[in-house]
């Protein structure tokens, strides 16, 4: 097989795979020669160079034209372009934030695993085949189990890794079980869409409201819910996020979630969001429960990492709203009216703000121990004003507060839910879901505010000092700066999110064009009021 | 000149931020340098605000939908002409007064902090300036998202101001204040989005718009069914009522006021509470006329409950600052009551009340702060006979007390009287507006609030100022360089407010005249009787020919208020009375 035919279209992915292998190999001879004494930064720096190269190639290639020759099971769309830009962009920040890790000599393995995970994310976005989708999601997940264990020499990290691995393996099994149902119900093909005998073509020609499809979707989504840390598969997050170094927890809040959401988009787009109502209701209940449970448990925590872990559960709930709303039929409607592009925008934003908050924790050390308890960051402002400011920006963004991009993320998500309108068969429940969402963001404000109040309104208690290098600080500056930049100029990200969502096709019958339908009914519904 | 009028509102909003940056980076470590820079920043802002008010009154700049000094540039639309969510600014006869109030109170609050704030002064003044920026932004915004951004942004600096420089319970006060307000405003947020999508789905523009004039037009076209209006109204009210604060959700206010530093209390009482009432008059009332009418009784009952409850609670306080805080709850009740009369007189009174309450309550907090700096207590049991120790202070305190009570001749009287007249005459139609929902039954209990107000305020004056001298041991504390009585700086802070109290009290006409056309065009347009609508349209057509003169001759309704106070001129409205029955615009 001649791989070179796929080069122009999939060059970023090739660069990532080759880079990941190169970084991995870099570790082997160094270990054999002088254990622990290789030039320490090389693997990390190489990983950053690889990711940046891939990112620049993406930008240089621009949006996929559509005519690229694609390897079997993959397809180059604007969705892939968005994930390349957003995923690799945040990926660079993740690598920068983790550059000082791990302390032991498994650096090469550590960074190569991050690169593999990022590669998996890109392939998830490119997948056009059920099996490729499954492998891609696992390519995202499996390295994260190793990353958690490698990140620091702490029993809790190993425990977290084992726990994460077993639960992750089980969820993968459930997901693939669900995939097998879908394979059987939709004509025995694994191709998602595009060709005449693909799953999408079969789904549009048959009645999808049958038990096998419902079971298949629910089992598949159970696996996805695990990646998203959605209720009821959220119980692992606190332990898993608490175990490794803080900056790794920032990574865990981004890569598996992003892959899970994209997998959800891929599955739902097979049906053009015209799934049986049972599936939508399960998604609805999971979204509502995820927001509420995540926020409520976070209220009860004292450990900042656990607070952020449960808040990440809540944010999965917000993003699930966008997933349920789905794409708008109006081509390029933009994130205000399009659930998928709102969700994509929010995901990348969340990756950066969550990473920023965790990175601030990761940059602090208290007599050799990592900083985790909320008492440890009290008076942070007086000791390290810059870090406190970055923390405040990221936390206000997580809270959804101006002047940060988090507010716009929430505007997009909730307004997309309101945009479906009452003509949509699921319109009413979605409005209720959005209201549950805004109430939840008020609950969320309570614990986020505790973090900010600890940083600013209290006297320092413990002697903290800054660790990590210039790279970590650069990542923190970039994450918090992005929050301001995207607030002023959301189009930097939302424009690509818009075109990405436009490639996810919605079906006419289901996703009625609200504006058009409304105008037809407006004439009889409106001026009924007479004095 | 076009350039100036196009950008002056932006300059007003960002001038304090520039000032804050200058304070942070440009003023070394000396506190005196820091505070004088902060003062310069806020004074320059005041200067810009006065310029803008002048330009607005002369009708300079672009006027769109009756909003002067209009400016718009792209934000979230991103070249997509189906989305109208932009950086849109503009002011009218209502917001210009609130801008002036904000512009005036901020330098005074900064000046008042000179002696009390020495700890982390740089951050303190930066936060005050950021707060000013947010407040000015709210009054300039013509885009709902922008409005919401500024509305929420004000919480951040105030949270830090209370939480860092507050009293004993500052952490709890700051958190309670923040969470109460956020809990309300997220519901406002939901209401705003729902409203915008209703406009997008059922309006005929085909544009998703958060532009306030567009939404007002849509709301007044009657296209929003009553049931939907109720829900949106409840959503909007949730946020604004907490901010005002209306009776059952006011509990954050006394705590926040007592714990906040003086400048924080001044701006909180003087301006931030007005963000809530401003939200009512700019959004809830004009966009949701039926919702407003349906809930008017409920809102009025809550407002009156607040008037009486606040007054009774103030009566039993021992802490002067808490007393003034509860008096705010009482006074803001009047403000809300007036606007829900849905009459010109009541609405004018309400806006007047916002400005007057801003002046007199801010001044009371300033005086209380000055006493506290000398005696380190606000407990009325430990203070007494201060008129002998601090005669100048006593004069100011009495002026502001009388203004707050509503003594004729001082500013408080105008607003209070108009609110009560508007409420009592709400069911009348001789001012050219259709009948409002309230009536005498609401005015009478509200009037008891005035009596109660006089009791507790004068009681406070008597206990602090008169009787035998009572001072805590070791006071007055002059160690910080303060003289026993007010210093020149402190007199300089209070004198402008006192002068304004007098001027507005004696000669309120220019204020009323400038706000009434805006009230009629932007708030009560849907309640104008049909004949008058025609007049107003003709009026507007004339305005259209002579570019952008929004100070065009006041339409007949603009004078309606005077009619209420001078019944002899009632014949001017016989025309509208002949039209008679209540015909609504758009039917």
Q: Could you explain the architecture of this structure?
A:
The complex is a heterodimer of chains A (531) and B (587). Helix content of chain A is 69%, strand content 2%. Chain A is mainly alpha-helical. Chain B has a domain at 291-587. Chain B has 23 helices and four strands. Chain B is globular. Chains A and B meet through helix 17, helix 18, helix 20 and helix 21 of A and helix 5, helix 6 and helix 7 of B.
Radius of gyration of chain B: 23 Å
Number of helices of chain B: 23
Largest contact between chains: A-B, 48 and 52 residues
User: SSE order of chain A, as H and E?
Assistant: HHHHHHHHHHHHHHEEHHHHEHHH
| Biggest pleated sheet of chain B | 2 strands, antiparallel
Mean pLDDT of chain B: 84
Overall morphology of chain A: globular
Short summary:
Chain A has helices at residues 7-33, 42-61, 78-97, 107-126, 130-150, 155-185, 199-205, 211-228, 237-242, 246-252, 255-270, 277-299, 304-325, 339-362, 380-383, 385-399, 405-419, 427-456, 470-488, 491-502, 514-525; strands spanning 364-366, 369-370, 464-466.
């Amino acid at each position: 097989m001649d791989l070179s035919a796929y080069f122009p279209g999939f060059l970023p992915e090739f660069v990532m795979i080759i880079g990941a292998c190169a970084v991995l190999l870099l570790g082997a001879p160094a270990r054999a020669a002088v254990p622990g004494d290789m030039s320490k930064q090389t693997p990390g720096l190489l990983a950053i160079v690889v990711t940046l190269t891939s990112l620049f190639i993406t930008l240089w290639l621009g949006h996929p034209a559509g005519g690229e020759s694609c390897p079997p099971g993959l397809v180059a769309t604007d969705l892939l372009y968005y994930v390349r830009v957003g995923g690799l962009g945040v990926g660079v920040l993740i690598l920068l934030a983790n550059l000082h890790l791990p302390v032991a000599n498994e650096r090469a393995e550590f960074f190569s695993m991050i690169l593999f995970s990022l590669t998996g994310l890109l392939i998830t976005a490119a997948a056009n085949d059920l099996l490729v989708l499954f492998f891609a999601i696992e390519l995202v997940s499996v390295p994260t189990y190793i990353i958690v264990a490698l990140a620091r020499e702490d029993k809790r990290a190993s425990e977290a890794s084992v726990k994460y691995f077993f639960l992750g393996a089980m969820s993968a099994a459930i997901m693939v079980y669900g995939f097998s149902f879908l394979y059987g119900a939709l004509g025995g093909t694994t191709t998602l869409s595009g060709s005449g005998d693909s799953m999408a073509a079969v789904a549009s020609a048959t009645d999808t409201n049958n038990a096998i499809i419902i079971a298949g979707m629910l089992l598949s989504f159970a696996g996805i819910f695990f990646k998203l840390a959605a209720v009821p598969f959220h119980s692992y997050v606190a332990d898993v996020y608490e175990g490794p170094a803080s900056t790794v927890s920032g990574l865990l809040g981004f890569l598996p979630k992003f892959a899970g959401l994209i997998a959800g988009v891929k599955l739902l787009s097979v049906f053009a969001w015209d799934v049986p109502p049972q599936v939508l209701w399960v998604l609805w209940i999971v979204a509502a429960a995820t927001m509420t449970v995540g926020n409520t448990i976070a209220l009860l925590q004292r450990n900042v990492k656990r607070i952020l872990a449960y808040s990440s559960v809540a944010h999965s709930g917000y993003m699930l709203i966008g997933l349920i709303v789905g794409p708008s039929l109006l081509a390029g409607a933009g994130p205000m009216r399009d659930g998928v592009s709102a969700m994509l925008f929010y995901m990348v934003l969340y990756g950066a703000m969550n990473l920023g908050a965790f990175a601030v924790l990761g940059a602090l050390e208290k007599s050799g121990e990592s900083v985790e308890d909320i008492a440890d960051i009290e008076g942070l402002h007086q000791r390290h004003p810059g870090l406190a400011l970055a923390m405040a920006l990221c936390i206000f963004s997580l809270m959804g507060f101006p002047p940060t991009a988090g507010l716009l993320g929430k505007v997009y998500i909730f307004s997309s839910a309101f945009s479906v309108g009452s003509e949509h068969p699921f319109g009413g429940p979605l409005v209720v879901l959005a209201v549950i969402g805004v109430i939840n963001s008020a609950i969320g404000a309570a614990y986020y505010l505790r973090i900010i109040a600890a940083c600013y309104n209290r006297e320092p208690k413990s002697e903290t000092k800054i660790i990590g290098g210039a790279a970590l600080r650069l990542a923190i500056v970039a994450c918090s700066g992005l929050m301001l930049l995207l607030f002023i100029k959301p189009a930097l990200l939302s424009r690509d999110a818009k075109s990405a969502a436009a490639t996810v096709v919605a079906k006419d019958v289901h996703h009625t064009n609200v504006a058009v339908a409304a105008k037809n009914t407006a004439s009889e519904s409106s001026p009924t009021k007479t004095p | 000149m076009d350039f100036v009028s196009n950008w002056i509102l932006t300059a007003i909003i960002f001038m304090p931020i520039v000032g804050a940056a200058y304070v942070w980076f440009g003023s070394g470590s000396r506190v005196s340098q820091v505070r004088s820079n902060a003062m310069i920043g806020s004074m320059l802002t005041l200067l810009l605000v006065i310029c803008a008010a002048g330009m607005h009154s002369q009708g300079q700049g672009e006027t769109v939908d009756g909003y002067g000094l209009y400016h718009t540039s792209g934000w979230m639309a991103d070249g997509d002409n189906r989305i109208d969510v932009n950086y849109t600014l503009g002011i009218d006869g209502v917001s210009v007064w609130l801008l002036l109030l904000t512009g005036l109170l901020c330098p005074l609050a900064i000046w008042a902090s000179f002696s009390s704030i020495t700890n982390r002064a740089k951050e303190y003044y930066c936060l005050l300036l950021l707060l000013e920026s947010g407040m000015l932004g709210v009054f300039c915004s013509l885009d709902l998202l922008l409005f919401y951004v500024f509305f929420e942004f004000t919480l951040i600096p105030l949270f830090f101001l209370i939480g860092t420089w507050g009293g004993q319970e500052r952490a709890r006060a700051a958190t309670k204040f923040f969470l109460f307000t956020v809990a309300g405003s997220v519901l406002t947020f939901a209401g705003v989005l729902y409203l915008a999508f209703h406009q997008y789905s059922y309006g005929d523009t085909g544009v998703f718009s958060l532009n306030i004039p567009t939404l007002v037009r849509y709301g007044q076209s009657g296209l929003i069914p009553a049931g939907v209006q109720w829900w949106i109204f409840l959503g909007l009210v949730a946020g604004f009522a907490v901010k005002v604060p209306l009776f059952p959700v006011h509990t954050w206010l006394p705590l926040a006021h007592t714990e906040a530093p003086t400048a924080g209390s001044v701006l909180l009482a003087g301006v931030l509470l007005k963000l809530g009432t401003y939200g009512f008059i700019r959004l809830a009332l004009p966009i949701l006329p039926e919702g407003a009418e349906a809930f008017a009784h409920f809102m009025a009952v809550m407002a009156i409950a607040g008037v009486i409850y606040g007054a009774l609670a103030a009566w039993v306080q021992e802490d002067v600052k808490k007393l003034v805080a509860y008096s705010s709850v009482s006074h803001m009740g009047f403000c809300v009551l007036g606007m829900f009369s849905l009459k010109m007189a009541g609405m004018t009174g309400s806006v007047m009340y916002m400005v007057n309450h801003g002046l007199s309550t801010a001044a009371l907090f300033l005086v209380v702060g000055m006493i506290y700096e000398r005696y380190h207590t606000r407990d009325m049991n430990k203070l007494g006979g201060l008129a002998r120790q601090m005669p100048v202070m006593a004069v100011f305190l009495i002026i502001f007390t009388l203004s707050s009570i509503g003594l004729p001749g001082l500013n408080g009287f105008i607003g209070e009287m108009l609110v009560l007249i508007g409420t009592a005459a709400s069911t009348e139609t001789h001012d050219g507006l259709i009948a409002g929902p309230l009536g005498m039954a609401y005015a009478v209990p509200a009037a008891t609030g005035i009596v109660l107000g006089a009791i507790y305020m004068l009681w406070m004056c008597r206990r602090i100022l008169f009787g035998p001298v009572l001072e805590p041991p070791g006071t007055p504390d002059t160690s910080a360089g303060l003289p026993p009585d007010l210093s020149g700086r402190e007199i300089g802070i209070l004198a402008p407010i006192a002068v304004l109290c007098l001027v507005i009290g004696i000669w309120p006409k220019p204020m009323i005249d400038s706000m009434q056309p805006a009230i009629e065009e932007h708030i009560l347009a849907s309640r104008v009787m049909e004949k008058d609508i025609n007049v107003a349209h003709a009026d507007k057509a004339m305005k259209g020919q002579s570019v952008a003169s929004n100070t065009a001759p006041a339409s007949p309704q603009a004078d309606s208020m005077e009619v209420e106070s001078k019944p002899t001129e009632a014949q001017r409205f016989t025309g509208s009375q002949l039209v008679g029955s209540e015909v609504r615009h758009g039917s």
